[in-house]
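Example record used in the benchmark description.
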Amino acid sequence: MIGEKHFADRRVKKKLLPVSTFISVFTAFAVFTTIQMKIIGRSIDYKSIPITNQISIFAFWILSAAVFTLWTNHQITRHYFGDMGK
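Model output (structure tokens):
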């Protein structure tokens, strides 16, 4: 009997967090954020922002990229692969 998380065919693999997708999403988010910060930087003194706030913003975008990657992977798996793993 095959368990719920195991497939009959070893060639079928399910990745929880595809690294290439994560890197692509994080890069896109980094570009969007850089553009946004360039626009905002024209009207505020960005050098006065504390380092803890900068780290918090960076952590937020890493978390956002990871969540978006997981959601995208779930949608692709659900719509395109459906019941293949069962």
